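USER:
Make up one protein:

ASSISTANT:
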Amino acid sequence: MRRKLLAFYILLLIFLNLTPRIPSAPVENGDKLAHFAEFLILGFLGWPLWRYLTPLPFLLEFLQLFVPGRTFSPYDMAANLIGFALGVLFGWWYEGR
């Protein structure tokens, strides 16, 4: 069940990060919070597979260079990576209790 949920979530992340629309956030730097939260969940769900999922935060941000209406941002990538790393740590801690 967990793997199916993880696979669905990865597909959802791909869709959300690579659709040619410009997302808007009601708060300043809200997109950074969204990136952080998206990848925090990915890290938590996929922490046992973190070695294989680590390229995803880089790749999805990089691919936005080729999507109309989207832009690459090193700050978004940093939010992706920090969220992912914390999610992995939280997942590891939660499962190890």
In short: The chain has a mean pLDDT of 91. Residues 2-15+31-96 form one domain.
